[in-house]
Structures are given as C-alpha cells and as structure tokens.
TrEMBL record, chain A:
GO molecular function: ATP binding; ATP hydrolysis activity; transmembrane transporter activity
Xref: InterPro entries: AAA+_ATPase, ABC_transporter-like_ATP-bd, ABC_transporter-like_CS, ABC_transpr_LolD-like, MacB-like_ATP-bd, P-loop_NTPase
PROSITE patterns: ABC_TRANSPORTER_1 (PS00211), ABC_TRANSPORTER_2 (PS50893)
Gene3D superfamilies linked to this entry: P-loop containing nucleotide triphosphate hydrolases
SMART domains: AAA
Entry GO CC: membrane protein complex; plasma membrane
Lineage: superkingdom: Bacteria
Protein name: Macrolide ABC transporter ATP-binding protein
Domain annotation ABC transporter: ranges: 6-241
Automatic annotation (TrEMBL), chain B:
Location in or out of the cell: Cell membrane
Transmembrane segments: 21-42, 283-305, 326-352, 364-387
InterPro entries per record: ABC3_permease_C (IPR003838), MacB_PCD (IPR025857), Macrolide_Exporter_MacB (IPR050250)
Lineage summary: Bacteria, Bacillati, Actinomycetota, Actinomycetes, Micromonosporales
Any one cellular-component term (Gene Ontology): plasma membrane
MacB-like periplasmic core domain sequence ranges: 21-242
Alphabetic keyword roster: Cell membrane, Membrane, Transmembrane, Transmembrane helix
Family: Belongs to the ABC-4 integral membrane protein family.
Membrane topology field: Multi-pass membrane protein
UniProt superkingdom: Bacteria
Protein's name according to its UniProt entry: Peptide ABC transporter permease
Domain ABC3 transporter permease C-terminal: 286-395
Pfam families from the UniProt entry: FtsX, MacB_PCD
Gene Ontology molecular function terms on file: transmembrane transporter activity
Length: 241, 404
C-alpha cells in the first residue's frame, strides 16, 4: 500500500493561556489513504474546525506531527507552505470565500495562476473544472450573481482545479438549503467515485452518511472511527424532483 | 508567477473596485494639485512684485535732498547740476556709469486747444533714458547736444500721447508748456505702473530747457546715478556718499541720520520687497503643507480601509497558495498605480490651472513643489498601502480569513 495522503500523530492545539486555556485538540491521530472519503462529525466546540484548519495548513498545531503526502507540514517555511497549500490541498470553506467582484472562471483560475500556469492553459483547465461541477455556462458570472449552491460549486471547482492530493471541505453545506446541499454533495460523490481523496467536516448526519468512513470527534478526541456503506439514494431522489 | 501576471492581478483588483479606485485617485489628485497651485500663486505674486521693481532699474541709486522736515536740526542740501557733475569722477567713483540730474514739476501741455495735466514733467540729461530703464518707443530721445543747446524738445509718455494726440502721430507736433513751444520728438514705451501713480503720464525734456521754462535755476530735485553693474550698486552708493560729503561739507563722523541728502537704492527696495514676497510665499507654502497633510491623511485613511477591508481576500488568496511576496507585490502595485496616477493627474490639473490668472495673479509653477507634492503623496500612498498589506500577508491564513 502506498503512503497515506494524510498522516496525523498526536495533534494538540491549545488556545489562550492560564485560566482561559482551551484544549481544542487533545492528541488526535489519524491516517487517511488515497481515494478515501472521510466525514468528520462532531457538535460545535468539538474541535473539528480546528482540526480542519490544521489539516488545510491554514493554522499550526501546538504540538504533534502532520505529514501531508509524506511531507512534514509543520517544518515548512512560509514559501513552501504556500506551495503545499497550492499543490497538495484543495480547501472548500463554509462561507464559500470566493473573491468578490471577480468572475467565476477567474476565481477558479486563481490557484493555477499562483502555480504559474500559462493563461491559456489556465482558462482551459478552469473551464474543465467548472464543467465538472456543472457550471460551465455561468463562467462569466460574478459571485453575487450566483446562488449559494452555485457559489459553493464554483468553490469546489476552484479546490479541485489544481488536481490536489486532498480535498478538504469545512462544513461545505452549512450555509446552504437542502436542495443546494444535494447539488454540492452530488459533486462530492462524483469526485469520490473518480478516485479523489476527500475529507469533509459536518454536523449534519445526512452529509456524514454519504462518506465511506465516519469519524466522530468529541471534546478534541476521536471517539468513533468506522467504515460504512455510503448512502447514495438521496441523489437519485432529488434529481428526479 | 511572473511580475507581469502580478501587474495584471493588480489591475484587475483596481478595476473590480472602480469607484473606490477613482475616489482614492481623486483624493491624491486634489492634494497634489492644491499644493502645486498654491505655491505657484505665491511665487507668481512674488515674481510680479519683483518684475515691477526691476522695471524701475535695479542698478541705479537716487540722490535726493532730505527735504525740509528732517528733525534734529538737520540741514537741507541744495542739489545742483554742479554736484551732479562732481559725481562723474573716474578716480573717486570708478563704478559710476552715468549721472543724470533730474528736475521735475507738474505742467500743463496744450495741443490744438486740448489740455492735459502731466503729473511729472521731467527735465534731465540724455543718459537718463537708459539709467532709469525708460526706453523710447517711437521716435527718438533727445541728445546731449539738445541738452547743451537747451532745445525745446520733449519725449512724452503713452498716456500723454493718447490724451493729446488721439489717432494722430505725435512726432514733430508742437505742444505748448507754460507758454513755450516744445517739439515732440518721441514717445516712451509703455511702462508697467508701480503703484497708484500712472507712470505713463509723464513727459521728458532736456534739463536746461525745463529749467529755463518751468522750474528756474534753483536746486534740482534728484540725481539718478547708474552703476556699471547691478552688483556694484552698493559700491557706487558709498562712492557717491564720499563725494557728496566732500561737496556739501558734511562731517562724515557726525552720523548718517543728519545728512542733508538721502540715497534711495533700488536694489535695497527690491530686497525688501522680495523679503515681503518670500514671506507671502512661505505663508502660502504653509497653507499648502497643511493641505498636503490633510490630503495625506485622506490617502492614508482610504489606503488603510481598502487594504484592511481586503484582509479576508488576502486570507483566501493565501489559502489558495499565494506566497506572501506575490500578495505584497500585488497590493504594492495597486497602491503605486493609484498614487502615481492620482499624483500625475494632480500635476496635470495644476499645470492646466496655472495657465489661468487666479485672483489677479498669474501663477508661476515652482518645480520643487511639483516634486515635493508628488513625492509626498506617492510615499504616503505606498507606505500606508504597503504596511497593512504586508501585515495582512504575514498573518496566518486562518487569522486573515476570520478578520472582520
């Protein structure tokens, strides 16, 4: 078996000092293999967002080791960290986080631009990514001209356009209604089928049910880690409606 | 990622917020233009003043009797043409170029029934025209020979020519002055007025003729002494003082306050006036500096707000893998474009504005004010655009993303 995409050992994160100290993560160890589809669930305050931010190299742990595709992320300098975020990780935010007043296709192109891809090639790949999420016809629209679900799908396209080793989604459906939630989840299902590694954070069971593996986080520790048969029926039901 | 790409990013960033970019540039534009124009107006008025004084002739001094009123028992000297002649002395006064004794009185000129009162009917020698910086426009001045022969010829000023000879060439016409006939030989070139007096309302005739007809053979009003060089004026003044003290038997040790004559130095006048004008320029410069400061605070404000507001965007860009250097470069280029474009437009506006006369003053641009205004606003724009951008770019992406 090849090396895991994600290998986290004894991750701890402490916020604040003295009386106000909060232990967000109390020694989390976790490995995720290539092609896996993992849902991390937990109530708010369980540390799942902290874990996600560390996995996405947006934040640094207080202690512990984090190997991303075999690279120790905690030892990287700013430049290499930027490179890792660009090449290895596709991050999807709860709040979409598209650049305002910038067209969908330009948003999707952004990570490619930072990767140094030539403009023509960039446009082609961005359009292909938008096609994957079914929004090729909305390429010229700006974020405020798109619905929440569409914005999130643009964000997904932006996350996968660099062909990253890992797709991280932090409550991707948290700001969406059930219809848009299904649209986005369907895209995740397709990506998983296509062999992408996905780690998704959620507190909604219907989102968690669709993953191949479920991890439950309580108070900064993993209390449950089990494989499951993904539920796919929801997609069929909604696509007929 | 190439530099060219970053420039394109910056341009896209600016065009995505057209109104804000335009307002930022407007702020810089007004700041720069106000400073340049204010200084230009100050400089222009200073220049106007010094031009007027220079028109009087800067390389001359005027010797006058100190007038009857002088307190402290000071005697009044009677200046005579002989004293004037004594001033032409190559050994004692080597720097004197010419000496023109001057008598002056008011007179009424009559031509074919038309009367005109001339405020200053001047009697002098031929050298006066160059010494007093009063060139003849049409016709000719009188000669030394005219003066020696006491010929009744006169050179009239523009105002006199217009009053007495409307639509007629005054040359060779005869005018009556106090019952004597004078032949007009020339008309003076129009001269800028120095004050309330119309300096074109004058007539100039040979000293001998004027004394004969108008003033009599008493004392003369003043002596105009021309130096060989504007830089020698002070030397001439001391030489003239020495000779006059000799001639008028003034004890030089008794102090200058009681001399029976006084010497007016045009370059001293110019100096005083220039100082006044400099004060004026400094005052306007201070006003300009304040407007530059206010403009600078405006630029600071809008730059800080712009970048702070985009901290989230910086977080997103970092999360997508933008290196710090690229983000910083993008924001610096945006700030540079805004301040340079705004500054350049401000200079253009000031240049256009300076071609108009503002409150009666023709502004004269001071090149250093252009450099200063432009430099300060660009520096402020860069600093306050760059500082928060570099701060945001240094943040961890998650902190930048959470920034509200």
């Amino acid at each position: 078996m090849s090396k895991p995409v994600l290998d986290v050992r004894e991750l701890r994160k402490i916020y604040g000092t003295g009386e106000a100290t909060v232990h967000a993560l109390r020694g989390v160890s976790l490995t995720v293999d290539r092609g896996d589809y993992v849902a991390i669930m937990g109530s708010s305050g369980s540390g799942k967002s902290t874990l996600m931010n560390i996995l996405g190299a947006l934040d640094v742990p207080t202690s512990g080791q984090y190997l991303l595709d075999g690279v120790d992320v905690s030892r990287l300098a700013d430049r290499q960290l930027a490179l890792a975020r660009n090449r290895l990780i596709g991050f999807i935010f709860q709040a979409f986080n598209l650049i305002p007043r910038t067209s969908a296709v330009a948003n999707v192109e952004l990570p490619l631009a930072y990767a140094g891809v030539k403009p023509k090639e960039r446009r082609r790949r961005a359009m292909a990514a938008l096609d994957v999420v079914g929004l090729a016809d909305r390429a010229k629209h700006e974020p405020n001209q798109l619905s929440g679900g569409q914005q999130q799908r643009v964000a997904v396209a932006r996350a996968l356009v660099t062909e990253p080793a890992l797709l991280l989604a932090d409550e991707p459906t948290g700001n969406l209604d059930s219809r848009s939630t299904d649209d986005v989840l369907e895209v995740f299902d397709q990506l998983s089928t296509a062999g992408r590694t996905i780690v998704i954070i959620t507190h909604e069971t219907e989102v968690g049910d669709r993953a191949k593996r479920l991890i439950r986080l309580v108070d900064g520790s993993i209390v449950l880690d089990r494989r499951q048969a993904p539920v796919l029926s929801a997609a069929g039901r909604h696509s007929q409606a | 990622m190439s530099f060219f790409e970053v420039v394109r990013f910056a341009l896209r960033g600016l065009s995505a917020n057209k109104l804000r970019s335009a307002l930022t540039m407007l702020g810089i534009l007004i700041g720069v233009a106000a400073v340049i124009l204010l200084v230009a107006v100050g400089n222009g008025s200073a220049k106007a003043i010094s031009d007027r004084i220079e028109a009087l002739g800067t390389n001359t001094i005027t010797v006058m009797s100190s007038g009857g009123g002088g307190g402290g028992g000071g005697s009044t000297a009677k200046l005579t043409p002989e004293i004037a002649d004594a001033l032409i002395d190559p050994t004692l006064a080597p720097d004197v170029a010419s000496v023109s004794p001057v008598v002056s009185s008011s007179a009424t000129l009559t031509y074919e029934g038309t009367d005109h009162d001339v405020t200053s009917f001047v009697g002098t020698t031929a050298g006066w025209f160059t010494a007093s910086n009063t060139p003849v426009g049409t016709g000719a001045g009188f000669t030394a020979d005219d003066e020696a022969q006491a010929r009744r010829v006169v050179v009239i000023g523009q105002t006199v020519a217009e009053e007495l000879f409307p639509g007629v060439d005054p040359i060779d016409k005869q005018v009556t002055v106090s019952g004597a006939l004078f032949t007009v030989v020339g008309v003076l070139k129009e001269k800028a007025s120095t004050g309330f007096q119309d300096s074109n309302d004058t007539a100039v005739a040979p000293l001998s003729a004027v004394r004969e007809v108008l003033t009599g053979y008493g004392s003369i009003n003043s002596i105009l002494v021309e130096a060989t060089d504007p830089g020698k004026v002070d030397a001439v003044q001391s030489e003239v003082t020495t000779i006059l003290n000799q001639q008028l038997k003034v004890d030089a040790t008794s102090g200058s306050t009681s001399t029976p004559y006084r010497i007016q130095n045009a370059s001293q006048l110019l100096e005083t006036q220039t100082e006044t004008a400099d004060t004026f320029t400094t005052l306007l410069g201070a006003v300009a500096a304040i407007s530059l400061l206010v403009g600078g605070i405006g630029i600071t404000n809008i730059m800080l707000v712009t970048v702070t507001e985009r901290t989230r965007e910086i977080g997103i860009r970092k999360a997508l893998g933008a290196p710090r250097r690229v983000i910083l470069t993008q924001f610096l280029i945006e700030a540079t474009l805004l301040s340079v474009l705004g500054g350049a437009l401000g200079v253009a506006a000031a240049l256009i504005g300076s071609s108009f006369t503002i409150v009666g003053v023709k502004p004269v641009i001071v090149p250093s004010s252009v450099g200063l205004a432009l430099g300060v606003s660009i520096a402020i724009g860069l600093f306050f655009g760059g500082l928060p951008a570099s701060r945001a770019a240094r943040l961890r992406p998650i902190d930048a993303l959470r920034y509200e």
